[in-house]
Design a protein that fits this description.
Length: 342
Amino acid sequence: MNISDRQRRRGRPDVLQRHFHGPIKFAGSPWQWWLADDVRSHEAAQRMDQYLRGSEDDRITTLRERKGRSIFRLKAEQGDLFAKEIALPSLRKRLGALLGVQNRLFGHDHGSAEVDNTLTLNERTGQGLEVLCLGELLRGGIPDRQLLIQPWLEGWINLGEAFDTADSHQRRSLLQRLEDLLRDFHHARICHLDINTGNLMVSTQDAQAPLRAIDCARMTTGVTQPAISTALQIGKMLRELYGRDEADFPTLYAKARAMQYRIAGETGVNEATDALLALSLRYRLSKNLSRRKLVTAATVNIDGPWLEQNVRASKKNADVPAIAWEHNHPVLPDDVPLYSSQ
């Protein structure tokens, strides 16, 4: 099934026109579907459409329902598929999905955003996933629910599970693959903004396979400050993998700076990245610091102690020891190496 230029111009929003053809509707269904050039897409959309209208299908399993999102697994001869249904509870998000707009007003985590981000990530780095189709249930001509279908990652587990059960050699391999992924993000000017050990997938069948990033709805693909973005993502991932024990902080900070240097180069290690590495290693930042603003700003001026006051306002950070600062740099023991490949 080839997508013609005419078919690309028929629908909305622009993100769907660029990647799919449609919309198409199945007889008697209130859903409409946008389909990729893949023989699996039409069958998957039709089966899911029937299931959403109440038809029984023992090849479709509901895996999870939480916070307005439902996750399904579709068994198919050509390989199982993953489906995610996304509710759009507010008018602004519904309009964002309609227009394919990602911003503070219209939201960042609707289905149209996730499709665009996922495919852009895969195009730029090869470490994302395909999207076979996107379904939409319209109300008043505006999407009320969206559902995307992707290939199922058979034989893959998340990075947290892989790291917990890995020996020291396997952990070094996982860290190297994590660094490779963050390097690709850095050069592609991408910041995941929801990166965590559950959103990075590891192959259990190929120890050399690159990591895959999933759940890309909040991602920004227009980073203007790649060194800042890289520091934030390094710090968070090392904190999630190793915890935030105060006794381990100097070692993790050295490891984080070494990784930052290898990815961003000498100019990518500076006062701002030092401060953000320290903050993201120690604190959960998402509720008290707009990482999106930091990585997309024209210029940045990072004041580590001031930012720390803001993030310590969160109850999740209140019991964590404060950072010892001197001239906006974390103070560390003299014997901690500046860079380390360990």
